Amino acid sequence: MSGLSFLTTRLETALGWGRKFSLFHYPFITACCGMEYMSAACAHFDIDRFGAGLTRFSPRQADLLLVVGTVPHKLGPVLRTVYDQMLEPKWVIAFGACAVSGGIYQNYAVVQGIDRIVPVDIYIPGCPPRPEMVLDGLLKLQDKIQHQKQDWRWARKS
Amino acid sequence: MEPLTRIQREARPESMLINMGPSHPAMHGTLRIMLELDAEKILNAECEIGYLHRGFEKTCENKTYFNLLIYTDRLNYVSPLINNLGYVMTVEKMMGVTAPERAQLIRVLMSELSRVSDHLTCLAAMAMENGAFTVFLYMMKAREFIWDVIEFTTGARMTTSYIRIGGVRADLHPDWRGSLATAVRETRKVLKDVSGLLDKNSIFLGRTRGVGVMSKEDALSYGWTGPCLRSTGIPYDVRKAHPYLVYDRLQFEVPVGECGDNYDRYSVRMREMEQSLRLLEQVAALIPDAAPLGGGPAIEPAEALARSRLQRADERVRLSPNLEGSEKERLPGLTAPDPLVGVPAKEDTYTTMEGLISHFLFFMSGKGIRPPKGDVYFSVEGGNGEVGFYIVSDGTDKPYRLHLRAPCFHIVSALEQLIKGRFVADVIPTFGSMNMIGGELDR
After folding, report:
1. Is the CB of A44 less than 8 angstroms away from the CB of B50?
2. Which of A140, B28, B137, B377 is such that its CA lies 20 to 30 A from the CA of B17?
């Protein structure tokens, strides 16, 4: 038994290492934060240095959903559809104050935080967050992925 | 079941209905286009907007004139300073306040920087959607230099809230000339590179020349303004037609296009950026260097506070953190002298009774900025066209109604007409060249 757990731990480490440096992200860009996302993704700040440079515009090819900007109620179902289309394992980053909590838009139109619609792994506050902050959030997510426990099918009880 | 949309009712049974957006890389996030297709040909199109409706106008009715400034930043978020300017000048027109000369020059400087960044972003996105990824990277690089200048002075990259009612928030950063010169030089270089890459590129020409052609009459009747209207050949520019700030003293041309197609919209934007860079240099030459702050001994805020309990403290206070250039000595040149318009200097607020009272009154609900009853409209030339604010005041500290005349609402309303009868691939450059900005379109 101890041999098996040693093996799975090593395997999890290897898997986490592989996953964290090959994040294919889907930018769900709605508003202002998109400008900072563009800055972070382009040559100046270069998100590619951290292995998340490949933007996929199909949710089925992506494993990181970046919700960039305000999500009004009208856009809520769209966000949920996009999330549901993504394959496991998948992670979500709430990018900017509006996605985190509704931000300055406390009114009838805006969803008060996207965690009411999809589960969120990393919250990046800021209105909009600076690219450095985005990179920091990405590193935090990578750390999370590295230490994520796998739900091995053979290890499940019953 | 949802009610059928217009296109679903009108569609022929044999044609195919397809949905572009709202989550589509070329829809800039927040527009949905439903297309009725016969193979690749678009028979009919319908745009659905409102996916970024954030309740801007309604929110403003519950905010004071001073507080709602931050919402104007987030309208056209590629050129926030111009939106600030439009709103602020509308309130100033209402209150009969004029900003000091130096503040006006700084405002022109900031508007032109924003205009360049707006056009850069628009063309970068348009080029990327047409497959020219290099152009995207180059233009983003140039935008970083522009934003460096903005950040130096305002302390923020995008949502700056820098232009305030009565003037500007703070003086320019001591090293602004150097960063501005770098930005202008780098942007010129990028523009040269980009026109080398795109101007005679047959792929780009094939997707833009003769595609999305808008006639002068249609453009006017749709209410187009800005670069898109000028691309049809009508030289209407708010800066020339109704000069504000110091634009009447500056030399610049209004570039116009010939036939109003996508390529003209691209080339008008490119030439407009050159004019903006020219304006930047002129304004930089006009702005005098800030007088050095009076030296001498300065005391810490805590000490000033303690002294002001006993008697009026007249010493200079060393305030930190404070936005560079917002010191009390600098303010008279930057904001109108009316205490009911601008926030009093922090030094006064912390050390004198009068300053504290006026600060208190300024922020107390029901006090503060209260324009006289009436309504007013004022517009400035934004990145997309005429950014106009219409404010109805009932004499209180909150607007009774605030309406934004968003240029891209009028431009995008013509999209259906422009893509009808074309191919699916033509939607992308046509839409890209319009520079749809969700925050401004849906408000």
Report:
1. no
2. B28
A42 touches chain B (CB under 8 A): yes
* DSSP conformation class of B386: E
A112: its two tokens:
């008060």
Q: How many CB pairs under 8 A join A and B?
A: 92
B253: left (phi over 0), alpha (psi -120 to 50) or beta: beta
CATH class in words for A23-144? alpha beta
CB-based contacts of B47, cutoff 8 Å, min separation 6: B31, B32, B33, B34, B412, B413, B415, B416
Residues B162-177: tens digit of each pLDDT: 888 888 888 888 888 8
Beta bridge partners of B403: B390
Determine the Cα–Cα distance for residues B250 and B286; give it in Å rounded to an integer: 10
Q: Does residue B388 sit at the A interface (CB-CB below 8 Å)?
A: no
Render pLDDT for B96-127 as a digit per residue (tens, 0 to 9).
Answer: 888 888 889 999 999 999 999 999 998 998 88
| β-pair partners for A28 | A67
Please tell me the number of Cα atoms within 13 Å of B106 on its side-chain side: 28
Determine, for residues B50 and A29 on separate chains, whether the beta-carbon distance falls below 8 Å: no
Q: What distance in Å separates the CA atoms of residue B409 and residue B46, rounded to the nearest whole number?
A: 15
Domain range list for chain B: 63-290+370-441, 298-363
Report domain extents, chain A. 23-144
State how far the Cα of B190 lies from the Cα of B23, in Å rounded to an integer.
Answer: 30
pTM of this structure: 0.88
Q: How many CB atoms lie within 10 A of CB A32?
A: 30
Buried b (16+ CB within 10 A) or exposed e, B346-385: bbbbbbbeebeebbeebeeeeebbbbeeeebebbbbbbbb
Judged by CB atoms closer than 8 Å, whether chains meet at B52 and A72 is answered as yes
Please tell me the class of the B63-290+370-441 domain.
mainly alpha
By the CB < 8 Å criterion, does B23 face chain A? yes
B41 interface with A at CB cutoff 8 Å: no
Contact B257, B233 (CB under 8 A): yes
CA distance B11 to chain A (A): 24
Instruction: Read off the pLDDT of residues B242-297 as tens digits, 9 standing for 90 and up.
Output: 888 888 888 888 999 888 888 999 999 999 999 999 999 999 998 888 776 666 67
User: Is residue B136 within 8 angstroms of chain A, CB to CB?
Assistant: yes
